Amino acid sequence: MKQTDYLIIGAGIVGCTAAYFLTKEGKKVLVVDRSFPCNEASGVNAGGLELLQQPPKSLPLHKEAADLWDRLQNEDGIDVGYQRTGGIYAILREEDLHMLDEQEERFAKNGMECRRLTIDEIRSMIPWVSHDVIAANFSPKSGYSNPLKAGRNVLAAAKKLGAEFMAHQTIRKIEPAEAGGYNVYAEEEVFHADKVLVSCGIRSPKLLDPLGARIELQEQHNMITVTEKAPHFLDYTFTTPTLTMKQTAEGSILIGGGREGYGELEANTKDVSINNLCFNVREALEMVPSIKKLNILRSWSGFEGFTPERLPYIGEVEDYPGVYYAVTGFCGYAIGPAVGMHACRMMTGQGEPGGLRAERRI
Ligand SMILES: Cc1cc2nc3c(=O)[nH]c(=O)nc-3n(C[C@H](O)[C@H](O)[C@H](O)COP(=O)(O)OP(=O)(O)OC[C@H]3O[C@@H](n4cnc5c(N)ncnc54)[C@H](O)[C@@H]3O)c2cc1C
């Protein structure tokens, strides 16, 4: 039996950051994953850290996350590929103007900067942007980070501080141990820990349901397309109600969109939908026609779990004190470090008084 104080199940961005923050507090931490770190959503996403599109209730946590991304990169010296570029959220129809008004309102409520751009400003910030864009907001705190680096490098930093990681450990069951704490069962290994965090992304309900903690996750199959590298011309992240676009530090354009691919979580199969992919790419072409010259290198899809309110769930399982969950509900990569941080605070008894504990949603 492998013994630890804090066992983290799932090495996505949430599990890796929770492990890092716990280890920084001097805790004995073991992270396990059914595969390798960030093999699922946290390693295949578009890296977008966009604030303008977030629901009002999760905006404070997104604000915290934006500061944590900055801290990880610039204070803690971990290469997470973070760039605070600022983000533009543009609309194409008069009837969507209310979205920009609402963004301004909720940013103001949270003491965050959000600025309405004039059409001339939009055109100077994104050369050749489509004339269909009728208005846009700008958030200076938005940006992106590199999913190929972020979670893995954060976990590497946690390991340097003493955390352990074991790959290829699919956890099947969590059970109270007679002597206290929990026994956690993988196929060929049993772990014992005082405290256990379930951060298995869309697969979290498999472990939480038997403990009576129900989190409803709607299965999504997001798609991304990446182009060949080009000289830098897109300085900001660019979002519309049905499109996300950015140019990476290396020069590739990443296109994500409102239309999904295919997938079946139970069967662990996923694929792109050519029709929907064409829709997303056509939309990107219409918005920024200059990308037409670029060849597409690759498209892929991945699983993401949406909670009904698009908010993360962070809590302690009511009937199993010492077992915690940290599950993102929408834009889980952007908010991931804050979810990891709150999980760490909860597990170490530093949550706000009566705060984010037991079954409480933020
Ligand atoms: C194509 C795509 C594009 C996206 N773009 C963005 C974006 O631009 N911005 C944004 O904010 N969000 C984006 N997302 C969403 C975001 O990637 C996810 O919400 C986020 O990464 C979830 O992180 P996580 O740590 O909770 O879960 P995951 O990254 O899914 O990690 C969970 C980990 O748990 C492990 N695991 C699962 N079950 C078990 C088990 N039983 N035993 C052991 N280990 C287990 C898995 O192997 C996995 O490594 C995108 C998602 C996809 C798929």
SSE inventory with pairings:
Blueprint: E1 2-9, H1 13-24, E2 29-32, H2 41-44, E3 48-49, H3 59-74, E4 87-91, H4 97-109, E5 115-117, H5 119-125, E6 135-139, E7 143-144, H6 150-160, E8 164-166, E9 173-176, E10 182-185, E11 190-198, H7 204-208, E12 218-229, E13 237-240, E14 243-247, E15 252-257, E16 262-264, E17 269-271, H8 274-287, E18 296-306, E19 313-316, E20 323-327, H9 332-347
Helix pairs in contact: 1-6, 1-9, 3-9
Describe this structure in words.
- The protein is of the alpha+beta class and 362 residues long.
- The protein has two domains: 1-86 and 143-216 and 310-362, FAD/NAD(P)-binding domain, CATH 3.50.50.60; 218-306, D-Amino Acid Oxidase, subunit A, domain 2 (D-Amino Acid Oxidase, Chain A, domain 2, 2-Layer Sandwich), CATH 3.30.9.
- It is built from nine helices and 20 strands.
- The protein has helices spanning 13-24, 41-44, 59-74, 97-109, 119-125, 150-160, 204-208, 274-287, 332-347; strands at 2-9, 29-32, 48-49, 87-91, 115-117, 135-139, 143-144, 164-166, 173-176, 182-185, 190-198, 218-229, 237-240, 243-247, 252-257, 262-264, 269-271, 296-306, 313-316, 323-327.
- Helix 1 (13-24) runs parallel beside helix 6 (150-160), helix 1 (13-24) runs parallel beside helix 9 (332-347) and helix 3 (59-74) packs across helix 9.
- The radius of gyration is 21 Å and the shape is globular.
- The two termini are 36 Å apart.
- The model is unreliable at 353-362 (pLDDT under 50).
- The structure holds flavin-adenine dinucleotide (FAD).
- Flavin-adenine dinucleotide is lined by residues 9-15, 32-35, 39-42, 44-48, 169-171, 199-203, 207, 222, 224, 256, 302-304, 328, 331-334, 336.
